[in-house]
Amino acid sequence: MESISSYMQQDHVVIDGIAERALAAAEARDWAALARDAAEFLRRLRQHIEVEEKVLFPAFEQRTGMSAAGPSVQMREEHQQMQPILAQMQAAAAAQDGAGYQRATKALLDILMPHNQKEEQMMYPMLDEALGEDAQALLADAKKVLV
Ligand SMILES: [Fe+2]
Ligand SMILES: [Fe+2]
Predict the structure, then answer these.
(1) Ligand nearest to the CA of 9
(2) Where does residue 29 fall: left (phi above 0), alpha (psi -120 to 50 degrees), or beta otherwise?
(3) Residue 90 CB partners (closer than 8 Å, separation 6+)
(4) Which residues are placed with Cβ below 5 angstroms of ligand 1, an ion?
């Protein structure tokens, strides 16, 4: 059976791949590709964060009572740290500023890579564990957002 862990981890892999394509487009100064891939990256990552914050983390917090402090609180804080950088990436892509896009991507990856690792090693497994048999229903709710 598919777990929340495996599904969300796979979504990280897909989003990482789009980030690499956008970065390559920025390096190649291929503005049409950058516009397309940056938009796709930002859409997918924002959607991923939304499903975590609106569907997965609330269910975790409800089950465990860990809502004032705990892993989901830290993950939300890191999402907040990403927001201004995502805006910079969007602005750089719109301005056809390849160097700016590359700089912003590197700044984002400094937060996103360890963040994803923490989710994969801690947050998602704790979610599967806390949800037990209800993990499948929650995953179905998550998939409705991730389209
Ligand atoms: Fe996250
Ligand atoms: Fe995530």
Answers:
(1) 2
(2) left
(3) 38, 42
(4) 52
Domain that holds residue 111: 4-145
Q: Which CATH number belongs to the domain containing residue 125 in this structure?
A: 1.20.120
pTM over the 0.85 mark:
yes
- Ligand 1 centroid–CA 72 distance in Å is 9
Report pLDDT digits (tens) over 108-144: 999 999 999 999 999 999 999 999 999 999 999 999 9
Between CA 18 and CA 78 the distance in angstroms is 20
Number of domains in the chain: 1
Distance 8 CA to ligand 2 centre (A): 6
Nearest to 32 by CA among 105, 98, 107: 98
Ligand 1 center to residue 112 CA distance, Å? 8
Ligand sitting nearest the alpha carbon of 10: 2
